[in-house]
Design the sequence.
């Protein structure tokens, strides 16, 4: 009895599944010696050199932390000047309070 030649399915959902094996390709693939992507140039510095020369971030001492608006609002209320938005705005122009830096806490 002669067997029918299997036709190539183009719909990946209709391909019969063999347990434990990957599904066959439904599109024509490039030859087996084809390389996908681009070749990356090595710079001579390996992973050991990168990890061995690790430098921790040093914050800039000249950078000023942001304004502490919660503290400014509290200060305005304690002085009786924080009732209206105009009072708070003028208080903030005359006074300053800054957030603590991460290394100062």
Sequence:
């Amino acid at each position: 009895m002669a067997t029918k030649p299997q036709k190539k399915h183009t719909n990946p959902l209709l391909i019969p599944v063999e347990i434990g094996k990957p599904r066959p390709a439904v599109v024509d693939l490039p030859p087996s010696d084809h390389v996908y992507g681009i070749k990356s140039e090595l710079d001579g510095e390996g992973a050991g050199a990168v990890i061995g020369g690790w430098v921790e971030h040093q914050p800039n001492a000249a950078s000023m932390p942001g304004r502490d608006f919660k503290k400014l609002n509290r200060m305005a209320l304690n002085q009786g000047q924080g009732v209206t938005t105009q009072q708070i705005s003028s208080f903030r122009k005359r006074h300053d309070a800054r957030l603590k830096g991460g290394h100062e806490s």
Observations:
- The first helix runs from residue 47 to 52.
- The helical segments are 47-52, 69-78, 85-94.
- DSSP finds three helices and no strands in the chain.
